[in-house]
Fold:
Amino acid sequence: MSTPILEVRNLCKSFGGVVAIDNVNIQVAEGEIHALIGPNGAGKTTLISQLSGLLQPDSGNIIFQGKDITGLPPYQFSLAGLARSFQITSVFQELTLADNVALAVQAHAGHAFRFWRNAKKDPALREPAMAYLKQVGLEERAGWLASEVSHGERRQLEIAMALATDPVLLLLDEPMAGMGREESAELIGILKNLRTEKTLLLVEHDMDAVFALADRISVLVYGQVIASGTADEIRNNSKVRSAYLGEDES
Amino acid sequence: MVLLLAVVPYVLYVTGNTFWLDIFTRLVILAIAACGLNLILGLGGLVSFGHAAYIGIGAYAVGIPVYHETYGGMDAIASYNGFVHLGLALLCCAIFAFITGVISLRTRGVNFIMITMAFGQMMFYAIVSIETYGGDDGLTIDLRSELPFINLDSPLSLYGLCYISLLVVVFLTYRIRNSRFGITLQGAKSNEERMNAIGVNCYKYQLTAFVMSGVICGYAGFLLGNFTTFISPEMMDWTRSGEIMFMVILGGAAMLWGPVIGAVLFIVLEFVLSEYTVYWHLPFGLMLIFAVLFLRDGVTGAIHGLSSSGARHQS
Structure:
């Protein structure tokens, strides 16, 4: 394996007496789709929050592209090239989809101390925004308000916004959450198309999606990574089967 | 609206109703202040309760140099020159807004309201305690600011200056709303966590908006000082901050013309209601509650909604 693009080293985090993340090590290689799975309460969200700077780890390091980015504020994570989508849809409801994505494009186009020109008519923002919407199959909805489109489309918008920040690594926090079967299938298609250009770290409950997409999988149980490997290795890992997959198999 | 504010005062003045011209001048000055507050309250979603302090600073930036020019002392700032007054007003407001903004903007919600109010009151008590400038008795401005081409002693010229200033401020806020800066600010108001996730440090944009907002209110204060020629700490009391806030909310925060409509309504209601009763604040308060509860974007939003209802929802 080449040098990992993201390396989580001995990460620990506890809340009061509860250990949420217990000495976690994860390596994500460039160009792969890495899935993080685990039962409810395993610490997935806590881990993702630390990987996007929202939570500070108690100890351990987050190394991204060879740089230690532990402890930086959230916007610095994004500027460094580590974008995230949210488990609970978090878009600008009162803006159109195009405006939402344009805002994300603008965020990475340098400072926004421009007080005069109309940004809503600025082709430097509009054109990339449309391209990203097209990438997730939303170009026909560009003029709709985010509050008017379906839940599934808002999830796709999340991903378009994350893409618009031109990330090296995309952190997707349960992108399929609350989606129907058809919508999930569509999203899996979109994510598959991304694999050629981006590295993806995917936190997901939907096992079909995980096994359809992931090159490698890490399994988090009670704050610890109990296994890490290819889909086949994970499927056949006895520890994983008893701790996690067993519950799903009928 | 624009025409109304341009023509009516002129006609009133020519027909000898100088009292009404005074009302209009006060209205337009307050509208400028409300536009300034709206920049941080409407676009930024941050409820500042201390903006009367900037009006006060602006007004004392006229009063203090004039006082020293007349009675001596403080040669550095003593002057009748309007540009000195204006420069002093804007600069002091910018500095005060920057210092208080750096601290207040670390908080949100009720804490932000309280801390901005506390800074406002600090300014209030500072002026009260300075006996030289009249303390809480206030200070009479003996001479208005001297400006080239405009004689502020003429009520009509003063009104003209205020009126044009208002148009400039409204146009300025209109440009800012749709600029990258404005959109960033509105994004931060809507969803700050999301803004962080796409790589925006909201703090520096909010601080800039806070300073701009303070400076605009300072300008309004400069005009107000020249209009009333009597200034007192009372004009920077927190109830004054509340009044500007009422205007913005009544008219419609985040609406371009909201603060102006709000200022007009405020002055009209104050005038009409106080004809009937000295307790005019009571019906006024009830109306404000009604506006907050039932009119989402204030009166401006309601008018807007009526004129375009149905057209919006065709998707």
Summary: Chain B has 13 helices and two strands.
